[in-house]
Specification:
260 residues; alpha/beta; TIM Barrel; seven-stranded parallel sheet; two-stranded antiparallel ribbon; 15% strand; globular; binds zinc ion; Histidinol-phosphatase HisJ family protein
């Protein structure tokens, strides 16, 4: 069966409980998923607070957003993972984190992530120089309408490249999601795609074919941009299907529209 892995689903909008995990597992099973990667953002956990100083200092709305997201200790999540390892799941279920990557946090992350044996680690770029790029409520005003989109695209992909090279991650989250608001990058992205693909192959990092921007932000691409996907395939990079579900009902969402 095609795309029978969902490599990226969030507990974000629910409690860190056995019952909530099972809701995702049941939904996955119903969709024909045989391997499910459960995670949550590092910004949920108090222990990663220092990484978001730039985001909080850059704008009050971002600080308010961040304070609402901080709800648990990483120890609660790790305790849940240990509890879940005793469960008899009908499919393979793995537990990891989606880490907000920024080069200046690399040393902190190296320590923080090596202190617990996660099954997988997704590295994602969610901000550009302290500014979040994907918030409907304020990102256009704070970032997209203030800076040249080509600069934003360049800085995004530079960070993504560094995330791959850091060797901190097994997988890269939504690699080309920066396209989500359809701003024109103003330059040819093919050399960037080629460089990313080569590096991902060298560092044995998987790249996500993530449907989140399609059903959450209505982008025309179902997952990866077609050119990017074919460059990754040609380079032999492992591609993992990912729904970025934030609710159990969205597990494997739109996987039927992804290419085989
Ligand atoms: Zn993400
Ligand atoms: Zn995500």
């Amino acid at each position: 069966m095609k795309n029978n892995i969902d490599g990226h689903v969030h507990l974000e909008n629910g409690p860190l409980t056995k019952e909530y995990v099972w809701e995702f597992v049941r939904s996955a099973q119903k969709q024909g998923i045989t391997t499910l990667h459960i995670l949550d953002h590092t910004h949920r956990f108090f222990e990663f607070r220092d990484m978001y100083r730039g985001v909080c200092q850059s704008a009050d709305v971002q600080k308010q957003w961040f304070e609402k997201k901080q709800v648990n200790s990483i120890r609660e999540y790790q305790a849940l993972i240990e509890e879940m390892k005793k469960e008899d799941f009908p499919i393979t279920v793995k537990f990891g984190l989606e880490v907000c990557y920024s080069p200046e946090n690399e040393e902190f992350l190296r320590r923080a992530l090596s202190s617990y044996p996660y099954d997988f680690l997704v590295g994602s770029v969610h901000s550009i120089d302290g500014l979040l790029y994907d918030m409907d409520a304020f990102s256009k005003e704070l970032l997209w309408e203030k800076q040249d989109p080509s600069t934003i695209y360049r800085r995004y992909f530079e960070r993504l490249q560094a995330a791959i090279e850091s060797d901190l991650f097994t997988q890269i989250g939504h690699p080309d999601v920066i396209k989500m608001y359809n701003y024109d990058p103003g330059y040819d992205l093919v050399p960037t795609y080629q460089h990313l693909a080569k590096t991902a192959k060298e560092h044995h990092v998987k790249m996500e074919d993530n449907t989140g921007a399609h059903y959450r932000y209505h982008h025309a691409d179902v997952g990866l941009n077609e050119t990017f996907r074919s460059i990754l395939q040609k380079e032999g990079v492992a591609i993992v299907s990912a729904s970025d579900a934030h609710y159990p009902k969205d597990v494997a969402k739109d996987f039927d529209l992804l290419p085989e």
